[in-house]
Design goal:
The structure holds 2 protein chains of 2 kinds.
Chain A (H helix, E strand, L loop, with lengths): L2 E7 L8 H11 L7 E7 L10 E6 L5 H12 L3 E6 L2 E6 L3 H11 L4 E7 L1 E7 L2 H8 L8 E7 L21 E8 L2 H10 L9 H14 L4 H11 L2 E9 L2 E6 L8 E4 L3 E5 L15 E3 L7 E4 L6
Antiparallel strand pairs in A: 1-8, 1-13, 2-7, 2-8, 3-5, 3-6, 4-5, 9-10, 10-11, 11-15, 12-13, 12-14
Helix pairs in contact in A: 2-3, 5-6, 6-7
Chain B lengths: L10 E4 L5 H8 L6 E6 L15 E6 L14 E5 L14 E4 L15 E4 L12 E7 L13 E6 L15 E4 L10 E4 L3 H14 L9 E5 L13
Parallel strand pairs in B: 1-2, 2-3, 3-4, 4-5, 5-6, 6-7, 7-8, 8-9
Antiparallel strand pairs in B: 9-11, 10-11
Amino acid sequence: MCGIVGLHLRNPELHPRLGELLAGMLCEMQDRGADSAGIAIYGDQDWAPSGVCTISLVDAGLAVEEVSTTLRGAVGAPVDVLQVGDVLLVRADVTSEALLAAVKALYPGVLIGGFGEDLAVLKGVGTPKELAASWGLAGVQGWQGVGHTRMATESAVTAAGAHPYAVGPGECLVHNGSFSNHATIRRELRAAGVAFDSENDTEVGARFVAHALAAGKDVATALTDLTRTFDGFYTLLVSTRDSFAVVRDAIACKPAIIAETEDWVAMASEYRALAHLPGVEHARIWEPEPEVVYAWNREVVPA
Amino acid sequence: MSISGTTPADVRFDLAVTPLREVNQLLHADGLSGSFAIDAPAGAHNVAVGLDAPVAVAINGHVGYYAAGMNKQAEVTVHGNAGTGVAENMMSGSVRVTGNASQSAGATGRGGLLVIDGDAGARCGISMKGIDIVVGGSVGHMSAFMAQRGRLVVRGDAGEALGDSVYEARIYLRGTAASLGADCVEKPMTEEHLEELAGLLKAAGYDDDPSSYRRYGSARTLYHFHADNSY
């Protein structure tokens, strides 16, 4: 199994409740697998302040001060580092490329959980309840969040095998299922110059989408391409800073439910993860059809 | 669709207060009779499973997987949506879902009547073995897959591969099928079938004209090994 959840908040009045609502969704899915878990939060000013780049270093075992000082020397700008559980959120007012290059050069082998503006990715080994508590998830804010709780089938139970896979700028992908032709696609992507962090099947899906977005495709096109390229079972939730999308394979045996109100769009493996959302009793609730891409875009609220 | 907890009942359970296992165990008591209401299911799995008594059970809200599974004798109504495998392996009695049902509704059912007022997802009636299923809306892909016995009535449309590898179950469809599965063919509607369908619609509370339906079933070409089917 595995459980996935996502919440895209349309009503800014709900932004302060993002973490609380997402934590409830994720922890309700703990029965679907609890060997590791992860989240991506868009828009929390403490975790990923607007206007700067944030990079997540997962299970790095490094000291905050040391990372801050070392990276400052490398990028030539102040680098602020926040420890959240076992994840370091490295923030600096430089481009993603510059900060990523410095991190990779100075800390080779450290797992990068995600990077980009407004995005904080946290993941690790443990139950979602333990991890959400260690991160203080219930207290965070923002306009969008996704979560994943894992029952490993395809690769090892490690932080690198935990979802989300956030391998493009501001992008994030979570997956319930298993890809069967991932080795072939990984080989093709490697030949095209794409580097991988793990042997995990989902990472291949995330790299495939990131590769398509980097080539200028939109999310819906990238996911349509994915349905034509990948074989296996999947329900995927793909997010960027400004979009939120769901797609399922042709067989559609991995569960998914979407609920939508004027205030939010929510997606989960099962309805019970949505049962506590405000106004769910009036939501439009449906199961996504196989191989249909459902996508929503954020309407940026003027400051 | 009503999901309010207002159905009258002799005994009420609130799943926000009473643990599900306790509720199910109480519903398994010897010599049980009367009516029961279960409020606030909040998508829980296995609500009102394994009943074997002539009781009426109203579940007020959306349920998760396998609601009313293995039902015998009881009349269960879900006032809301149902997750995967509602009324799976039902033996007798009836289950009604006032909203939509997820995949594998009525899977492997041996008897009884399952009515889904809304739509049913993929694989509705997969491997059914005698259950009758009436769907008010449409059904998803691969419905009645390997269906052995019983009747599937669909008032709306059917997704791809309807009746794939169907055995002797009968499928009545009012709308159109996106495609028929392997060995599933349209068959003539005779008096016998019109009468059978009228009875099923009546039992489910619908008054459609049976002649507006088409019947589908097995061409029986997969019953025996054929060299052309190997690869």
